[in-house]
């Protein structure tokens, strides 16, 4: 009988949902295992075929752990605030809430269609006031602990979304969300002081099991560097402080560069002889994003500030000061010392403007290029540092600077504080009010959540204010502290807010007294295995680690880190290897694949498509191959089978497959695990399987293709269900072959191979090798000295010429 996958899959999905088959239990006596995926943003287009890849992978892990005896938490939710929904609502004259509800309904239907073993009772939605009440509560704790503050600063401004973007949301000079141009603007913004956690965010990576490329990206983004801060006096009486990782090269500093936003330009405007030229350059720089300003390949531009010069603290010589857009006010001190002899960018700038170039570390040829590979060189042209190694010179100069009160040892970070406010409607309201007498005052915690008001227009204003600013009835309120008239904050939180703690809410999603109960957090924390995209490494993953560390510091969560293990997956490309996009017409809708081939075929194919951690190219023909494999299993299991244990002819292959599949799931090698299952099915077609062979096959198949596994389990009349079985164990003794082909070497060189019984005694191996016809011929005029045996692998015969 042909397998009716449509009927079977709907049958089992309904049964699982009705019976709450995958419900996690808080406080179970079983060992816990918390498996987490990045909850999706519910877009109007629904799931694309890239979503099921990580979801299915973690579903396989969750199903495996249940079969291994764990109490598994595998939850799902929706990261539903954000600009795309708001923009869609504006275009279609709908309320964002209505758009969100429709999108979540569509996503839920699709996720259920895939047979994913989520605990649906724990589903969360970041736009639910009962959820964002606690997002607001966390923000208030940060405000009370000095981590949330408001400041005027140059920000990234999306010209289309008309809102501020964090540095992490600007990709190659354009908005990560909409692809529009990003420019710089001066605005008053709420900030979160993530930099106060920079040291811990770096150091604590050593204690977690994250794949190496995730750790590297986070460390590079945080950008810890060790060096010194150095004070340069100016002829105007100001002090320009710079941070440098190479204080040993101070004698080679021949000019300085400050950012276009530096306070010196405003404070000393009357002393600047070319103020008009400097101001024009500053205005031009303000129209560029940080990305454009710091591109390594772009031509270096700048203007010398005439009328004010700096004084090199070690030579006492006056050096020129330039303004240039590649120096950012938001990184370091907004000023740098330039050492063109040993920095390629500084040399390029110096050559353009005819500035001196001095060699201070011996070893290169600065007449040709900057000598940058100079960490182990010897100091020259450097006064009291001459003759020292670079490392010794660093220590000596820092000590000298500190003695002269001209600088100090310093650890610096590239990481900037998080720009947290957005000038849009569809986000969590920031729960603060401004009072002329009291300043910024938190909304009382018992008044949370601060709800979004109903508004007629969600259009961002041209002035850059949130649409909420025009809601006077909502904005005008009373100060919670003194009762005077006050105004609510009208900016909203970024989409990253709700996703910075959702994994905690899953542990206790209905709690109305806390973000989650202490017992639930103590039991489930931390997440055992978290899989997500590499594109979120310096956004969500970093932000959520920061929030978690803060909550740990105030005693809310029991662990320093939220995630014990982090892995990542590659994207699925369209046929031809191009990224899937609507414009290319190569987007694959998972609904189409499920309708035509079934959910199990889709699950199997996206796990079989290639190395899980790398990009893979979609192939319609390969999908059909996975469908044929499932049909072969169906046809095999429909045949009469021998009762009793494993078939002796299949036993070794069964044990090998159990070992291979078990190990491959742990190492994310889903494709080779499936290949092993295919080989086992081939073996069963050669040697008729017994009932225990079929049981083991269906048990191993269950995490990958759960619907057909359950259907066949039921059809065979086996007790309970495939998913509830104990994961099979393998016996190493039954995996080994009876015989092994081993290498035979003469004096370390391979000459032939021989077949011997496994685990043979060394003497037997040696005698077998010596009695081999080829070895006999090669050693007939030689004297045997000794032999080296590597069990079941090789024997090396040491001989020498006979006397």
Question: Can you tell me about this structure?
Answer:
This protein is of the alpha/beta class and 803 residues long. The protein contains 26 helices and 32 strands. The strands form nine sheets. Strands 11, 12, 13, 14, 15, 16 and 19 form a seven-stranded mixed sheet that branches. Strands 2-1-25-26-10 form a five-stranded parallel sheet. A hairpin with a 2-residue loop joins strand 29 and strand 30 (749-757). The model has no long low-confidence stretch (mean pLDDT 92).
Strands, helices and their partners?
Layout: H1 5-18, E1 32-37, H2 52-67, E2 71-73, E3 77-78, H3 83-92, H4 96-113, E4 124-125, H5 129-144, E5 148-158, E6 163-165, E7 170-171, E8 174-175, E9 182-192, H6 198-203, E10 209-210, H7 212-222, E11 224-234, E12 239-244, E13 255-258, H8 263-267, H9 275-286, H10 290-294, E14 303-311, E15 318-323, E16 335-338, H11 344-353, E17 361-362, E18 378-379, H12 390-403, E19 407-413, E20 418-419, E21 432-435, E22 439-442, H13 472-475, E23 476-478, E24 485-488, H14 502-505, H15 518-524, E25 529-532, H16 540-553, E26 565-568, E27 572-573, H17 590-597, H18 599-608, E28 616-617, H19 620-638, H20 651-666, H21 670-686, H22 691-701, H23 706-716, H24 732-735, E29 739-746, E30 749-757, H25 762-770, H26 773-778, E31 782-790, E32 794-801
Parallel strand pairs: 1-2, 1-25, 3-4, 10-26, 13-15, 25-26, 27-28, 29-32
Antiparallel strand pairs: 5-6, 5-9, 7-8, 9-20, 11-12, 11-14, 11-19, 13-16, 14-15, 17-18, 21-22, 21-24, 23-24, 29-30, 31-32
